GDP-mannose 4,6-dehydratase (Drancourtella massiliensis), 357 residues
Amino acid sequence: MNRQVILITGAAGFIGSNLVLELLRSDDPVHIIGIDNMNDYYDVSIKEYRLEKIKSMSESKPDSTWTFIKGSISDRDQINAIFDEYKPSIVVNLAAQAGVRYSITNPDAYIESNMIGFYNILEACRHSYDNGQPGVEHLVYASSSSVYGSNKKVPYSTEDKVDNPVSLYAATKKSNELMAHAYSKLYNIPSTGLRFFTVYGPAGRPDMAYFGFTNKLREGKTIEIFNYGNCKRDFTYVDDIVEGVKRVMAAPPEKRKGEDGLPVPPYAVYNIGNSNPENLLEFVDILQQELIRAGVLPEDYDFEAHKKLVPMQPGDVPVTYADTSALERDFGFKPSTPLREGLRKFAEWYREFYMNK
């Protein structure tokens, strides 16, 4: 990716900001364009904190460039203008309205960002080849483990049939994969979808369970553990996600012709997960231990008095479990950060961000 122009949407988001930081850290000079609408779905100060980290990193890397644009991928004119001006060779689409439960109460946000926004990105990639231009060499985009719905077979493989989403969020992510396949077939655009499994870590999303639990425990409120604690999640540390994305970015699916002489769609989908699902009760126990260790909670905190086991919520699934064999085979990489190590880093960041100010 040496000296490539890279467009990253959702650049102030959890995964997007960490990806920008990692690319700036590398020895290869890169030219990164970031776009984010900075919406208030969750605390905007966390997004601003991430952008400050990027700004600081970029200032120490004079051979690389960082340009941030506040805007929405659902604004087609703005996306076209970015492609016309900067002519990115790699596009990483991480902008999306996330969250299963929010898709039940505010579905419009998912259609606007995840469907219309992604369509705008695909169209811009398509027209990047106009008039003999070299065009986009690789489109990488975020999918989700939610596409597996309530599949009974575990671990989840990208070979599994995923035609029965149980939330609008999952349906939009599966739609992204279908749209990308169509554009890869029609216009020979190399594209790779990445199904992320429950990403966590410092400066993460406050709507995620580990973050929300921490806020409530610190405020002395009761946390609700769904499905009576019988859920299992494949928690994946953000640095592992970023490493996987970075490796995939540099290796687009090959353009080739099939036996009929027609192009075979340069299209791929991979899981990125820890391949080690953790029981939610055990996860919460480790979390509270690390919060006590970091000084976020007092040592005598009565954890049992602040938890409640409740039924499953609409749209949730009982287990997520990634089969990452294809990622290991093609990229020699497997996420491996232990849960306790990742939660320790989160707890230390939380203390620094919220309590040491």
Q: What stands out?
A: The radius of gyration is 20 Å. The longest strand covers residues 138-144.
